[in-house]
């Protein structure tokens, strides 16, 4: 059984590197441990908010989670995959970047008929008013 997600710790991990998430070219990249903590916590929050096994969200090298209700995938390459880098993931997870912008610019690789369903669960930890919060 998975540990419950602590939303306060997730928010704290995100806020600790919030300046970099908002303006990555303006500040120094956070330490790997801080970056990994924020990525893992936000991805696991998505997994908890949208339980299921239909879509695999990958943010290498830090985490891969399964989410969205539907058929469980057990072997080989999953049919629905979302993959992105840590910076893009954290911008999506906090509302600094929209799903549409990320996919259309190639910052997110979303494959499979259900991959776009992840968008309905973003942002995970809203730091900006996006107009598309759940």
Automatic annotation (TrEMBL):
<dbReference type="InterPro" id="IPR041629">
    <property type="entry name" value="SCP_3"/>
</dbReference>
<feature type="domain" description="Bacterial SCP orthologue">
    <location>
        <begin position="32"/>
        <end position="124"/>
    </location>
</feature>
<protein>
    <recommendedName>
        <fullName>Bacterial SCP orthologue domain-containing protein</fullName>
    </recommendedName>
</protein>
<dbReference type="InterPro" id="IPR036527">
    <property type="entry name" value="SCP2_sterol-bd_dom_sf"/>
</dbReference>
<dbReference type="Pfam" id="PF17844">
    <property type="entry name" value="SCP_3"/>
</dbReference>
């Amino acid at each position: 059984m998975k540990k419950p997600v602590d939303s306060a710790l997730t928010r704290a991990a995100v806020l600790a590197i919030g300046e970099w998430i908002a303006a990555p070219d303006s500040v120094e990249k956070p330490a790997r441990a801080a970056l990994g903590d924020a990525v893992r916590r936000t991805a696991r929050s998505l997994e908890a908010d949208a339980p299921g096994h239909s879509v695999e969200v990958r943010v290498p090298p830090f985490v891969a989670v399964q989410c969205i209700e539907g058929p469980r995938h057990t072997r080989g390459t999953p049919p629905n995959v979302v993959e992105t880098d840590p910076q893009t993931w954290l911008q999506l997870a906090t509302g600094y970047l929209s799903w549409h912008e990320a996919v259309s610019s190639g910052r997110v690789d979303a494959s499979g008929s259900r991959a776009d369903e992840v968008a309905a669960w973003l942002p995970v930890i809203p730091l900006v008013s996006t107009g598309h919060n759940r």
